[in-house]
Every structure is written in structure tokens, then in C-alpha cells.
Amino acid sequence: MSGHNKWSKIHRKKGLADAARSNVYTKLGKEIIVAVKLGGSGDPEHNSKLKEVIAKAKSNNMPNDNIKRAIAKGLGDSSDNNYDAMVYEGYGPAGVAVIVEALTNNKNRTAGDVRSYFDKSGGALGVSGSVSFLFNRLGLISVANQTEDNLLEILIDSPIEDMSTEDGIVTITVKPENFNSVLNVLEQNNIQTESAEVAMVPMSTVAIPDDKVASFEKLIDTLESNEDVQAVYHNAE
Question: What parts of the chain have a pLDDT lower than 50?
Fold first, then answer.
């Protein structure tokens, strides 16, 4: 899993920065609403996607009241809470692969915005599948104040793929379909997580020339600031 440790470290820091933004809870709430509607249940024990999103929300310190309100909206019939899940793929400056996940009630608006961001950065939006083959979809669960040996003992019968430690944080990697079962074992053993989400992890990373760094960072910042964009993944070092 080349580049995984470094990516995890960067992603944890990015998550903390994102959590300071005023719209982070709004975006998480939107994910919860969609998970409830797709799963047909507001009970995370009977809706695996909802359980996954709630874990992500709690990792971002989303208050329980906000989570409950979002679940209630998902259970309602309001057309205002109907969103389409969209995935955009393309190349940013210096050929960096970028994947954008969005939830939108206006696909034309969102597609136009995303295409404009790529064009202005000197990149280009591609077709479906143009860069996703460079990533693996994986569950990432980060734990502090634990050793790998201790976690391995607790998870001895759990289907984990990898475990690594950096800066005192142990990151457990699992296949998406095993994400909730591993989370359940940790919860049963009173192990708190620093972060937990299913994400697109690059199989390898690429370096960005100094003269392209500013335009690349602007692309990522602009994408993440868009109200329809839920997540942005890339393979930059």
C-alpha cells in the first residue's frame, strides 16, 4: 500500500482543518439524510451505510442533536432533502489524479461548477473511470493511545487488511464491507476512534513541481468549499 501512511497522516490533518469550516456539519447532515433514504431506516444497527456515516460524523465532532435532526429529515417526505450522488474524475495541475464526490439537487449546476474549477486550475475533468483505477476504496479507522499489539489482540478474529502507526496514531485498514464489523468490535472493547471513514486511497502518489503547488492547492480548496462537494481525494504527495 504505497503512500498509505503518508496519505493517512495528511488526511487526518485535513479533517481537523475541515471541521473548523462552518459548512462541515451541513455536509455531514446531507450524507446522513441520503444514507437514511437509501437504507430505508433511521436505525444505524439496521442501516450499515448510516452507521458508516455516523462514525464519520462523530469523528468530526458533530453533536448528537445534529445527527438526530438529520436522521429525522431523512425519514421525512420533503422533496427539499432529495439529493443525487455524483462522482467526478479528472486531472489537476501536474497531472495529479482527483476524485470529487458530491450530493446535489441540481446536477447541471454542480457539474458546471466542478468543470470550471478544473479548467481554471489548468487541469481537465475526465470521464467516469479515468482516474478511479489509481485508487482503492478502503475503510480507515484511526486510534490513539493504543499499540498495534494491543489492537491486534482485540481484533484477532476481525477481517482487517493492514495496520500501521505514525505519530502515535494507529491506522487500521479494512475493506469497506468489513468497516462496521471492525468498528463494532472496537466499541465493544471501549476503544475510541480518532477518525473513521470509508475513503478513496491512492495506490501511489506523485510529486507536484513547485510552480504548480499554488494552483493545485487552490483547486482543492475551491472544490472543498463548494456546498455540493462532500469529499475530494487526490494522489499528490
Answer: 1-13, 16, 18-19, 21
Dump pLDDT digits (tens) for 139-193: 999 999 999 999 999 999 999 999 999 999 999 999 999 999 999 999 999 999 9
Identify whether residues 117 and 212 lie together within a single domain: yes
**Do residue 128 and residue 211 come from a single domain?**
yes
129, 139: one domain = no
Same domain, 119 and 21: no
pLDDT of residue 19: 45
* Domains held by the chain: number: 3
**pLDDT tens digit sequence for 217-232:** 999 999 999 999 999 9
Instruction: Name the residue range of residue 71's domain.
Output: 4-81
DSSP-assigned letters across all residues of the chain: -TTHHHHHHHHHHHHHHHHTSTTHHHHHHHHHHHHHHHHT-S-GGG-HHHHHHHHHHHHTT--HHHHHHHHHHHHS--GGG--EEEEEEEE-GGG-EEEEEEEES-HHHHHHHHHHHHHHHT-EE--TTSSGGGEEEEEEEEEES--HHHHHHHTTTS-EEEEEEETTEEEEEE-GGGHHHHHHHHHHTT---SEEEEEEEESS-B---HHHHHHHHHHHHHHHHSTTEEEEEE-B-
